[in-house]
Amino acid sequence: MSRRINFFITGVILIILGVITLHHPLEAIMSAGFFIGLGLIASGINYFTGFKFLKLKRFLVWGLLDLVAGVIMLLQPGISAFIMPFVIAFWLFTAGVARTCTAFWLGGASIPGWKFILINGLLLIACAVLMCISPLNSALSVMAVLSGILIVSGVFVIFEGFITL
Protein backbone atom coordinates (compact mmCIF):
# COMPACT_ATOMS: atom_id res chain seq x y z
CA MET A 1 0.00 0.00 0.00
CA SER A 2 1.49 3.33 -0.92
CA ARG A 3 2.09 5.90 1.78
CA ARG A 4 -0.37 8.36 0.25
CA ILE A 5 -3.15 5.80 0.16
CA ASN A 6 -2.51 5.00 3.84
CA PHE A 7 -2.78 8.68 4.79
CA PHE A 8 -5.92 9.06 2.65
CA ILE A 9 -7.63 6.01 4.15
CA THR A 10 -6.74 7.05 7.70
CA GLY A 11 -7.98 10.59 7.07
CA VAL A 12 -11.23 9.40 5.50
CA ILE A 13 -11.89 7.04 8.43
CA LEU A 14 -11.34 9.88 10.89
CA ILE A 15 -13.66 12.19 8.92
CA ILE A 16 -16.38 9.52 8.68
CA LEU A 17 -16.18 8.84 12.43
CA GLY A 18 -16.41 12.58 13.09
CA VAL A 19 -19.48 13.04 10.86
CA ILE A 20 -21.24 10.02 12.40
CA THR A 21 -20.57 11.35 15.88
CA LEU A 22 -21.81 14.83 14.93
CA HIS A 23 -25.06 13.60 13.37
CA HIS A 24 -25.89 10.99 16.04
CA PRO A 25 -24.69 12.37 19.40
CA LEU A 26 -26.98 10.25 21.59
CA GLU A 27 -26.03 7.06 19.82
CA ALA A 28 -22.39 8.17 19.84
CA ILE A 29 -22.44 8.59 23.62
CA MET A 30 -23.88 5.08 23.94
CA SER A 31 -21.16 3.62 21.73
CA ALA A 32 -18.27 6.02 22.36
CA GLY A 33 -15.91 3.23 23.30
CA PHE A 34 -16.48 1.62 19.94
CA PHE A 35 -15.84 4.82 17.96
CA ILE A 36 -12.81 5.77 19.99
CA GLY A 37 -11.45 2.24 19.77
CA LEU A 38 -11.69 2.29 15.98
CA GLY A 39 -9.99 5.68 15.84
CA LEU A 40 -7.19 4.52 18.10
CA ILE A 41 -6.66 1.36 16.04
CA ALA A 42 -6.52 3.43 12.82
CA SER A 43 -4.08 5.81 14.47
CA GLY A 44 -1.92 2.89 15.65
CA ILE A 45 -1.80 1.45 12.13
CA ASN A 46 -0.83 4.88 10.81
CA TYR A 47 2.06 5.05 13.29
CA PHE A 48 3.21 1.55 12.26
CA THR A 49 3.31 2.71 8.64
CA GLY A 50 5.27 5.77 9.73
CA PHE A 51 7.71 3.52 11.57
CA LYS A 52 8.09 1.29 8.52
CA PHE A 53 9.00 4.18 6.21
CA LEU A 54 10.69 6.68 8.55
CA LYS A 55 12.33 4.19 10.97
CA LEU A 56 11.43 6.35 13.99
CA LYS A 57 11.18 4.05 17.02
CA ARG A 58 8.80 6.43 18.80
CA PHE A 59 6.25 5.71 16.05
CA LEU A 60 6.38 2.04 16.99
CA VAL A 61 5.79 2.88 20.67
CA TRP A 62 2.93 5.29 19.91
CA GLY A 63 1.44 2.81 17.47
CA LEU A 64 1.46 0.06 20.09
CA LEU A 65 -0.07 2.38 22.70
CA ASP A 66 -2.84 3.44 20.33
CA LEU A 67 -3.49 -0.13 19.22
CA VAL A 68 -3.67 -1.50 22.79
CA ALA A 69 -5.88 1.39 23.94
CA GLY A 70 -8.15 0.89 20.92
CA VAL A 71 -8.64 -2.80 21.64
CA ILE A 72 -9.37 -2.07 25.32
CA MET A 73 -11.95 0.56 24.31
CA LEU A 74 -13.66 -1.93 21.98
CA LEU A 75 -13.78 -4.62 24.67
CA GLN A 76 -14.83 -2.38 27.60
CA PRO A 77 -17.25 0.32 26.30
CA GLY A 78 -18.87 0.86 29.72
CA ILE A 79 -15.63 1.81 31.39
CA SER A 80 -14.71 4.01 28.45
CA ALA A 81 -17.74 6.27 29.05
CA PHE A 82 -16.42 7.05 32.55
CA ILE A 83 -12.81 7.70 31.56
CA MET A 84 -13.57 9.04 28.09
CA PRO A 85 -12.38 12.65 28.57
CA PHE A 86 -9.04 11.50 29.96
CA VAL A 87 -8.50 8.79 27.37
CA ILE A 88 -9.28 11.20 24.57
CA ALA A 89 -7.03 13.85 26.11
CA PHE A 90 -4.20 11.31 26.40
CA TRP A 91 -4.67 10.21 22.79
CA LEU A 92 -4.82 13.78 21.52
CA PHE A 93 -1.74 14.72 23.52
CA THR A 94 0.37 11.77 22.33
CA ALA A 95 -0.78 12.23 18.73
CA GLY A 96 -0.05 15.96 18.99
CA VAL A 97 3.41 15.38 20.42
CA ALA A 98 4.14 12.82 17.71
CA ARG A 99 3.03 15.17 14.95
CA THR A 100 4.91 18.12 16.46
CA CYS A 101 8.14 16.12 16.76
CA THR A 102 7.69 14.82 13.23
CA ALA A 103 7.10 18.35 11.94
CA PHE A 104 10.34 19.60 13.45
CA TRP A 105 12.20 16.59 12.08
CA LEU A 106 10.73 17.13 8.61
CA GLY A 107 11.35 20.89 8.81
CA GLY A 108 14.99 20.27 9.71
CA ALA A 109 15.23 18.03 6.66
CA SER A 110 13.71 20.83 4.52
CA ILE A 111 10.74 18.67 3.52
CA PRO A 112 7.82 20.80 2.30
CA GLY A 113 4.52 20.69 4.13
CA TRP A 114 5.98 20.29 7.62
CA LYS A 115 4.07 23.36 8.83
CA PHE A 116 0.72 21.59 8.29
CA ILE A 117 1.90 18.74 10.50
CA LEU A 118 3.09 21.24 13.13
CA ILE A 119 -0.25 23.07 13.16
CA ASN A 120 -2.11 19.77 13.48
CA GLY A 121 0.15 18.66 16.34
CA LEU A 122 -0.24 21.91 18.25
CA LEU A 123 -4.03 21.88 17.81
CA LEU A 124 -4.21 18.32 19.13
CA ILE A 125 -2.11 19.24 22.18
CA ALA A 126 -4.26 22.34 22.85
CA CYS A 127 -7.44 20.25 22.70
CA ALA A 128 -5.95 17.73 25.14
CA VAL A 129 -5.08 20.46 27.63
CA LEU A 130 -8.57 21.97 27.39
CA MET A 131 -10.16 18.60 28.08
CA CYS A 132 -8.07 18.09 31.23
CA ILE A 133 -8.79 21.58 32.60
CA SER A 134 -12.48 20.79 33.02
CA PRO A 135 -13.20 17.06 32.83
CA LEU A 136 -16.84 17.38 33.91
CA ASN A 137 -17.65 19.90 31.19
CA SER A 138 -15.57 17.85 28.79
CA ALA A 139 -17.60 14.75 29.57
CA LEU A 140 -20.79 16.66 28.80
CA SER A 141 -19.54 18.03 25.49
CA VAL A 142 -17.08 15.37 24.41
CA MET A 143 -19.14 14.21 21.44
CA ALA A 144 -19.15 17.65 19.78
CA VAL A 145 -15.47 18.12 20.56
CA LEU A 146 -14.60 14.63 19.36
CA SER A 147 -16.49 15.02 16.10
CA GLY A 148 -14.75 18.30 15.31
CA ILE A 149 -11.34 16.91 16.21
CA LEU A 150 -11.84 13.79 14.11
CA ILE A 151 -12.97 15.76 11.07
CA VAL A 152 -10.20 18.38 11.27
CA SER A 153 -7.51 15.80 12.03
CA GLY A 154 -8.75 13.61 9.18
CA VAL A 155 -8.51 16.54 6.75
CA PHE A 156 -4.98 17.34 7.97
CA VAL A 157 -3.91 13.68 7.64
CA ILE A 158 -5.12 13.68 4.03
CA PHE A 159 -3.21 16.94 3.36
CA GLU A 160 -0.10 15.47 4.99
CA GLY A 161 -0.22 12.48 2.67
CA PHE A 162 -0.38 14.61 -0.45
CA ILE A 163 1.99 17.37 0.61
CA THR A 164 4.83 15.68 2.48
CA LEU A 165 5.33 12.38 0.70
Describe the sheet with the most strands: none
Q: What order do the helices and strands follow?
A: HHHHHHH
**Which oligomerization state do the chains in this entry correspond to?**
single chain
Head-to-tail CA distance between termini: 13 Å
Strand content: under 5%
Any overview of this molecule?
This protein has helices at about 5-25, 25-30, 30-55, 55-75, 75-110, 115-135, 135-165. It is an all-alpha fold. It has one domain. α5 (about 75-110) packs antiparallel against α6. The longest helix has about 30 residues, at about 75-110. It is globular and about 45 Å long. The two termini are about 15 Å apart.
Short précis:
The chain has 165 residues and is mainly α. It has helices spanning 3-23, 25-30, 32-54, 57-75, 77-108, 114-133, 135-163. Helix content is 91%, strand content 0%.
Secondary-structure blueprint of this entry?
Elements: H1 3-23, H2 25-30, H3 32-54, H4 57-75, H5 77-108, H6 114-133, H7 135-163
Helix pairs in contact: 1-3, 1-7, 3-4, 3-5, 4-5, 5-6, 5-7, 6-7
Considering the chains and any ligands shown, give keywords for the structure.
165 residues; mainly alpha
